[in-house]
Amino acid sequence: MMSQVVTRFAPSPTGYLHIGGARTALFSWAYARKMGGKMLLRIEDTDRERSTEAAVEAIKDGLSWLGLHWDGDAISQFGRASRHADIAHELIARGHAYKCYCSPAELDQMREEARAAGKPPRYNGYWRDRDQSEAPEGVAPVIRIKSPLSGDIVVHDHVQGEVVFKAENLDDFIILRSDGTPTYMHAVVVDDHDMGVTHIIRGDDHLTNAARQIVVYNAMGWDIPEMAHIPLIHGPDGAKLSKRHGALGVEAYRQMGYLPEALRNYLARLGWSHDDDEIFSSEQMIEWFSLDGLNKGAARFDFVKLESINGHYIREAAPDYLYGVMIALAEEVGRLADLEGLTANKATVLAALPELQPRAKTILELIDLAQFIYASRPLPIDSAASALLTPDARSVLGDVRDLLIGLNDWSVEAIDAAMRTLAEAKGLKLGKLAQPLRAALTGRTVSPGIFEVMVLIGRDESLARLGDQIDMK
Ligand code: GLU
Predict the structure, then answer these.
(1) CA distances (Å), 263 to each of 120, 246, 320, 447, 451, in order?
(2) What's the pTM?
(3) What is the domain partition of the chain in residue ranges?
(4) Which of 173, 174, 352, 426 has the greatest number of beta carbons closer than 10 A?
C-alpha cells in the first residue's frame, strides 16, 4: 500500500510571501488535497540574521488569505537544530561523514590550486581519510559528508525528467558548521525525512541542491521523496520576474484589489494546465491536478490575464461577499472616506453592486464605481464628465429637473418613460439627455444605468445634485 502523500511548503522567512512562493505552495496544497494527503508548513528560519517574526506572520497571512491551509502546526527548522546535529554525528559513526579542520587560509589555497589546474574550485577531501589524531589543537571542526567519488547522481524529477549529475563535480560539502549549526542542505533532508515528506514540489532553482540532498538521503539509507522542480515565473518579456512585472508579495495583490480565488486560479494556470481551461474552481483544480500536468517551460506573468480572471470572479461573486471585501480593502489601504461612505450606505451599496460588478476588474475599481452613492455635494466632477457639461447641456438639465420634480412615481420605469417623452419633445436622442445627467449625478462618464442610479440615491439627492450643476454659473 502506498503511504499517505505528504507535501510541504518550506519558505525562508526573510520577506513577504512572494508570488512564486505562493504558486509553489498552491501546487503542494493541490497535490496533497488531490491525494487525500497532507501539506505541511516548515519555516526555514536557520538564518537568524535574516529571518524575522514579521515575515513568518506575513507568510502565514498570505497563505491563509489565498485559502492554502496547511496541516498541523508550522514547524520551525531552527527549533530542530539539535536533531540536525545528531544526524551529522550519526553520519560520522556510520562512516559517511567526517570532521574537517581546515582553516579559511587552507581552503583558499585549495581553491587556488584547483583553479590553477583548470578544475572547479572546491574542497579536495583533505580530511576525508585522515586520522583524527592529526587534528590541530583548539580548532573547532566542521562536519563534511562523503560525496561519492565517481558515478552519477540522478534526480528523477516529475517535471525535469532524469537529471544526471556527475559525482566528481560534487565535493564533500559541509553539513554541520563549526558552531554546531546545520547547513541548509543538511537540515532540509533531515526535516523532510522526519516530517514524512513523500513529494517535494519547489522551484527549479533548487535542482542542483537536490543532487546534494540525495547524497545525504543515501548516506542515511533513507527513501528519497519524489520531486517536482517547477520552472520559475518570468516577466512578460521572458526575463526574470521584476517588481514592475509582478514580483510582489501576495498582500500587494490584495491591496491592488485582486480576489484570492482569482489569484489562486491565475497562479494555477501559471505553470500548470488542464486542457484549455482558464477558469476553474479550487475543487476542479484539485480534481484535475497531477504532477504530470506541470509545465516544463517557464511561465510568463501577465497582468492583463490576471485582471480579466479577476473581473470574472467579481462578476460572479455574491454582493454581500464583495461588500465585505470592499470594506476590508478600504480599511487596509487607508481609504477612510470610502470606508465611512460604504459603511453608512450599506443597503444602497448592496443594491447597486449587481450593476457595478460587470464594470469592475478590481475591487479598487469597484470602490471607485460605488463612490457616487456616498459622494458629498457638490460632487467632484472628473475631466471627461466636465467636458459633457456644456452650457447647452446644463440648460437641458434644467428641463430634466422640472420634469422630475413633477414625477410622482420614482421608479426606473417611470423615470425612463418620462425621459423618453422629454427627448422626443425636444427632438434629442435619449443619450443626449442621459450623458450630461450621468456626469451631473455621478461625476463620471461610467456608471450603472443612469435611471438605476437615480433610484439608488433617491429623489432628493438626485434633484440636489442636478441643481448643483444647473445653478453653477
Ligand atoms: N527555503 C527554501 C526557499 O525558500 C526552500 C527549500 C525547499 O523547498 O527545499 O527557497
Answers:
(1) 43, 12, 20, 26, 35
(2) 0.92
(3) 1-70+231-316, 80-230, 317-374, 383-470
(4) 352
